[in-house]
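== Folding task for one protein ==

=== Format: two labelled lines per protein ===

==== Paired sequence and C-alpha cells ====
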Amino acid sequence: MKRLWGFAAALVPLLALGSAGGGAQEQTAANKVGTFDKTAIVLAYYRSELWAATLSAKRAEHNQAVQAGDTARAKELEQWGGTSQELAHQQLWGKAPIDNIVEALQPAFAEVKRTAGVDQIVVAPYDGKAATVDVTNALLDWLKTDETTRKMIVDMQKYNADHKDTGPDPK
C-alpha cells in the first residue's frame, strides 16, 4: 500500500504542470485481436518520454505566456496541468476512459499490429469471438518502459488483483 501511495506522490510532480482502439471495443470478425492491460499502459504512458515531451512543451508554452504577460494563457495552461493530473489519477484507478492515451499511442498500435499479426488492439479483456494476443509487453517496449516502472506495474496489478472485490481506489 505504501508503494502505491509512493507512486501517487511520484506522479504528482511528474504531472504538476499545472479505451483502446478509439474508446469502446469494436465487435468485428477480426482474425486476431491484440489486447493490453489498461493499468500497465496508463502507468507506463505517464512515466514515458512521450508524456515527458508533452509536459515539457506545455511548460515552455506556460513560461512564454508568463514572460509575455499573457496571464489568461498562463492560467489556461495551469488549468490544463491540473486537469491532466486529475485525469491521470482517474485513469490509473480505472475511473476514466483512456482515449487520450490511445490517441497518443496510435503509432505504437500500427507497429504492434504489424509485428504481432493482429487486426486491432483493444483493452483487455476482449469479449469478442476472435483469438487474442496479449500485446502489453510490446506496447511497454515501444514506450521504452524502464525497470522501475515495470516493477510498479507488477505491484499495481497485484494490488488490483488483491482488491478486485473492493475496487482498486485506496480512498
Strands lie at 32-36, 120-123, 131-134. Residues 50-101 form one domain.
